[in-house]
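Researcher: Final request for today, and then I'll write up notes for the group meeting. The sequence and the SMILES for flavin-adenine dinucleotide follow.
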Amino acid sequence: MKSRVQVVVIGGGVVGCSVLYHLTKMGWKDVVLIERSELTSGSTWHAAGGFHTLNADTNMATLQGYTIKLYQELEEISGQSCGLHHVGGITLANDEDRMDFLKAEHAKHRHMGLDTRLVDPAEIKEICPVINPDGVIGGMYDPLDGHLDPSGTTHAYAKAARIQGAEIYLRNRVLELNPRGDSTWDVVTEQGTVHTDYVVNAGGLWAREVNELAGVYLPLLPMEHQYLVTDDIPEVYERDTELPHVMDPTGESYFRQEGRGLVLGTYEQRCEPWSLDGTPWDFGHELLENKLDRISESLEMAYHRYPCLEKAGIKTIINGPFTFAPDGNPLVGPVPGLPGYWTACAVMAGFSQGGGVGLTVAEWMVEGEPSRDVFAMDVARFGDYCSRSYTRDTVVQNYQRRFAVGYPNEELLAGRPFKTTPLYGIWKSQNAVFGSMYGMEAVNYFAPEGEEPYEVPTFRRSNAFETIAEECRAVREAVGLNEVHNFGKYEIIGPDAESWLNHVVTNRVPDEGRMALTAMLSPRGKLMGDFTMSRLGPECIQLTASYGAQAFHMRWFQDHMPASGVSVRNVSDTRIGLQVAGPNAREVMSRVTRSDVSNEAMPFLSVRRMDVGVVPAIVCRVSYTGGLGYEIYVSPEHQVSLYYTLVEAGADLGMRPFGMRAMMSLRLEKSFGSWMREYKPDYSAAETGLDRFVRLKKNDFIGRDAAMAERDNPPARKLVTMIVEANDADVVADEPIWRGNEVIGFVTSGGYAHYSQKSVAMGFVPRELAIDGEAFEIEILGQKCPATIIMTPLFDPDASQMRG
Ligand SMILES: Cc1cc2nc3c(=O)[nH]c(=O)nc-3n(C[C@H](O)[C@H](O)[C@H](O)COP(=O)(O)OP(=O)(O)OC[C@H]3O[C@@H](n4cnc5c(N)ncnc54)[C@H](O)[C@@H]3O)c2cc1C
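Model: Predicted protein-flavin-adenine dinucleotide complex:
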């Protein structure tokens, strides 16, 4: 075994072998894979081998498409068959909601280059004659779906990697992972120690144990999963062509042909985590005991759906474990806080996702950043807040929801409430309906008195529509009160705070007492963040950003941190507070502080330390609602005091609490973008308009060359705001934008702007079409709705309220 290498990949399942292959494909040859037993010795060997592109995240779906198209290349390089069966697949819909879901997915596929189509019951029967279409109202057909031989495919990755220079060490367990302190690692194995620049945990079923060796906990858990293989069935083997895959969400089952019989698998409600306290090292090629009683309801529905099953005997029943993260997507990338330690685990669909995971790891490692936004599988989308019990509850929920319709306004309940602020009980007593982000509860809206605090999940306008409209009106016409706990907040401190930040972000760090908006770029000019900077002192700057990006942003800061002179503290949960927003906001503030809050003393984008009521606070003259507003930051122990002070002061000024639904509606009226919607690593500053916060003349900063190149050669697409003639459903994200018969762009987000009473969409169109009044059509739930670009904001177009 080599003693010094560039990369050690731990685990010879389909994912580890794909990572190894992609590293060699990108030119890194000094890479090795270490496997405890033989290749495929974890979940991989007993997989059903199905693959598909469907994924709620568009980039994940694209990477799944990449994986499927890769197999032919692999076969050619390795000479090893993957046992491919490109038979196509249908997802059935039994009700209108499911059909809406499929319509929305199908619409996204148009701009992703995926070739799906919607089908009616007659076509379904034609494509899959053994189906009984009773109760089915339609479906979506994807020609890319199919299945393969899991073992052959894993060996094809491994062979191709070896041909391209990698080495694989079998029967060699990794026993210890020891960091040297310079971001390199000693990997201690049964056959000796290897010193490496990078470790990749592709330990699959044992990924938890490998993480423990590195001293980190990541949220993943194995679940038991069963499928059965039938004896030969004449209706199957007498056909000339192979049957397609069928996903029947109502029956929570998937179905495909296997030789002369069928495979039927289920994602049942009565599911079970496997080996909660850890995977035994001696677990290997054994299967788990069958638990058919747990899937009896699904089997009954399957027998109804595929009548030919009734005559068939069961040849084999497979019950095996494989791992999931709380949202079902993989955990990939550099683990925050552990330089040199990477993960490629929790891959629950190794044959749909393995290629994309391998490509992503290799691009990120070799080139410094992936070629697309991969936040949906980034290990940093979860922070260190996840406890083992939180992981268990959310992973079980995800398994049970494998076939559930994902509604845009749905709030999942497992593991909640997890993190709350001191105001939680007060909001609850006011009939608040909560959402959750990064484990933190935040009010979505306040249900009317006497009404159940519950927003019905839907693709259309919900039961909360009127209430949100009232909250918006209060903010626009009087004053609204809302928490600011759900921003990510960072304090940059030290003598070099200003110079370091000027190197990391695109705008100039403001003078003391002032605020500025800024972008943060990758070297390639992709957006890594959009921040508000508040200069609190000569050596102290506060950054505010998305709450859900905390581990993502902290990882970036730490990766670019000098040895001394500056430090970054994540104060997201220790600096919380409230905002007052609306025309009466200044009057409220003037009643609660002796400090001068007049426009002269405290203009737009200024920041002051002051007492509010009796508590010390940082007050920022800014509001994401786009009108007059103040964000007031305090310590958690002062939040309740602050609340009562503001409520008392605002009682005769029409003050009303409002939630995130209203906030997201109000920001649309100002065309304010939002992180992971309009702003994310897929896009650049010039594409999104954030180039107005790029100061090319200041000293060198990360991404400057790319930003210069964009200035000289403007990008092909541009973010715009459109008014949509929608019916009862507004855009969510990723809807295609049509011009004539051509899809020319896509939506990033939108919704109903209640105060302006307009349906709004933000999205990308070709630069030459980004003109005021330009007309398009946006496809919402299968219907093309006229849409027109507006270049001036719907509310406060001259910013007189915001700045006045
Ligand atoms: C019943 C069942 C049906 C499935 N059906 C499908 C399907 O139809 N389609 C699909 O895409 N997916 C399916 N899956 C899921 C699929 O099996 C997984 O997504 C995939 O196998 C994950 O691969 P992996 O490489 O991440 O992990 P694993 O296959 O678990 O591989 C991890 C490897 O790491 C090695 N290892 C761990 N620790 C160490 C160590 N310390 N030192 C050295 N080596 C170590 C292990 O020995 C193992 O070989 C199914 C799973 C099950 C259980």
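Model: Residues 480 and 656 are 5 Å apart (CA to CA). The first helix runs from residue 14 to 25.
Researcher: Thanks, that's everything.
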